[in-house]
Amino acid sequence: MSELARGPAVVLLSGGLDSATVLAMARADGYACHALSIDYGQRHGAELLAAARVAAAGGAASHRTVSVNLDAIGGSALTDVSIDVPSAPSAGIPVTYVPARNTVFLAIGLGYAEVLAASAIFVGVNAVDYSGYPDCRPAFIDAFQALAAVATKAGVEGKAPRIEAPLLHLSKADIVRRGQALGVDYGLTVSCYNADPHGRACGQCDACRLRADGFRAADVADPTVYFPA
Amino acid sequence: MSELARGPAVVLLSGGLDSATVLAMARADGYACHALSIDYGQRHGAELLAAARVAAAGGAASHRTVSVNLDAIGGSALTDVSIDVPSAPSAGIPVTYVPARNTVFLAIGLGYAEVLAASAIFVGVNAVDYSGYPDCRPAFIDAFQALAAVATKAGVEGKAPRIEAPLLHLSKADIVRRGQALGVDYGLTVSCYNADPHGRACGQCDACRLRADGFRAADVADPTVYFPA
User: ipTM for the complex?
Assistant: First the structure.
């Protein structure tokens, strides 16, 4: 079987650790990976620069960015500068939750899959975020899969793309191990909610903590560069 | 019961005939209507100017526009200037179909509903478009309703907004009659896929034909202004 025998797939690519791993997994599965990044007014724009680097290094067949100004509707610390990103863990759904973010991302991915006649859409949601983010749960992925079956021309023809969430039940350490085995260069990725324009991380936010814990638990060297003290 | 006793609702407002009618229906139902327009790179930008006029005239509590450049993924005559808008009816799904458009619109509406704690999202999909657009069918609305129940914080708390599609089973003539009874000024609306910057219509495209037929069948005076011959 040739390397890309499974045809085109859409890979949602944020520039963070998780989606860089998903890209490597989709490539290893034999898909021609069309990376799709969403510029949603997030304050960590360094992630989008990282996405372009990760797409190139990860052998994506193409990389496009769609902009959607979710800041116009507000409601999250990630898009609204009047809400601070917390530096300590909080109970319940965090203020970094962006309302309906993964619904919007998968909706745009679904449109792109229709244009490409892609058979799969890969998304990097994972178990670590379950408790905090409603749209990182298996029930969400299942409901979006059911929607895809009726929402598009491909769906009507019985060819809806599969929603592939290969990280869904993995810990951060599992993800790091998988990615390392597949040769992902995590030095290119940016996870921090407060990253500076160089992609350097704060080391304080939830995303930084989860990432650092993952490298530590996987016993893999952590290439993250932090702000100067 | 006071006029706006039912609290906030999101109303997707394109500036066309259908959504102007939906706004009037939602207002009559007692909702404080937060109109949401989506600038998705459509060639008929006159629709968005019309949306602002319709929101003001229709008593919307607010009006916001979210931009999402679906032209970056292509695939439709409405967003891709290399695909002509046809001037005669075609069989099957028309080239004016925008892949996953209503999924993207409702996804953004769902995020906005979460921010507003809205109990309903109104959308103007209707029966006349069923045959051509997969995402105008009852099955699509039902699947999105199921998704809304798991996709957001409100859903997790058992308070997902209802997806209200009050035009779903109405003909264009029925829609025009309802709107007229509710005082909608259809002279403010723009439906044409090829509208000029003044909002004047071509009289040739599918949208123009459906609209003109609706006024005729409803026996209501048609205020549409066409291009000079």
Answer: 0.91
